[in-house]
Design goal:
This protein is mainly alpha-helical. Among the domains are: about 30 residues; about 100 residues, no CATH class. α6 crosses α10. The N and C termini lie far apart (about 60 Å).
Length: about 210
């Protein structure tokens, strides 16, 4: 509605007096600004040479801070992924479920988020299950054991606790990971037990 109102106001203003005119001028944005010219040059450089190995000898290197920062980040991520692929066990984490379906899962990653129906709470509990970073008292029990203090672990939640219902017949992590689709089994378990691996079911340490 704003453009329509503006046109109506201008038309009324034009009709008031024949000397009322509107002049439009073209103003090139950021032209001549050194910093902007540097960024534009770097963008063209990246578009022309997406792979650093394709850059001809003697080609001036980009100079903007943003480009250098982005290049360092991209290089670090690439090297990390190469190291992770060379030694998956080292980079998956000690308690990470070792299965191809759970590689490189992220809380905000598109793959688990889409498969789990775009439900952030479910995704959060799913990631807690895969990585064993859940409020079960497991880590606390490892580092600060106390006599007769209630505790539980991920395996207790998934396979043994009578508080939850299960459709699968797995009794261990090994059996779960050997199933046809462990991703689906965990998803169904979490959907049927809405408080599992959430802070609602955290052990009482009072």
């Amino acid at each position: 509605m704003a453009p329509v109102d503006a046109c109506r106001i201008l038309r009324d203003w034009f009709e008031r007096h024949p000397d009322n005119h509107l002049h439009l001028h073209y103003c090139p944005s950021h032209v001549g600004i050194t910093e902007n010219e540097a960024v534009d040059s770097d963008v063209k450089y990246k578009a022309r040479y997406p792979d650093a190995s394709d850059v001809p000898r003697g080609t001036p290197f980009p100079i903007s801070y943003a480009y250098v920062k982005s290049s360092i980040k991209d290089d670090a991520v690439l090297k990390w992924r190469q190291m992770a692929d060379d030694n998956p066990c080292k980079y998956w984490g000690r308690y990470h479920f070792r299965h191809p379906a759970f590689r490189r899962l992220q809380h905000t990653g598109s793959f688990p988020l889409k498969r789990l129906g775009g439900r952030p709470t479910l995704v959060a509990r799913f990631i807690r299950c895969i990585t064993n970073h859940a409020p079960t008292g497991h880590y606390r029990d490892r580092f600060r054991q106390r006599f007769q203090e209630p505790t539980m672990c991920r395996e207790h939640v998934l396979f043994r606790c009578d508080h939850y219902t299960r459709k699968y017949r797995h009794s261990s992590v090994e059996e779960l990971l050997e199933s046809m689709d462990p991703f689906y089994d965990i998803q169904r378990f979490l959907e049927e037990n809405l408080s599992a691996l959430s802070f609602e079911d955290i052990p009482d340490y009072a």
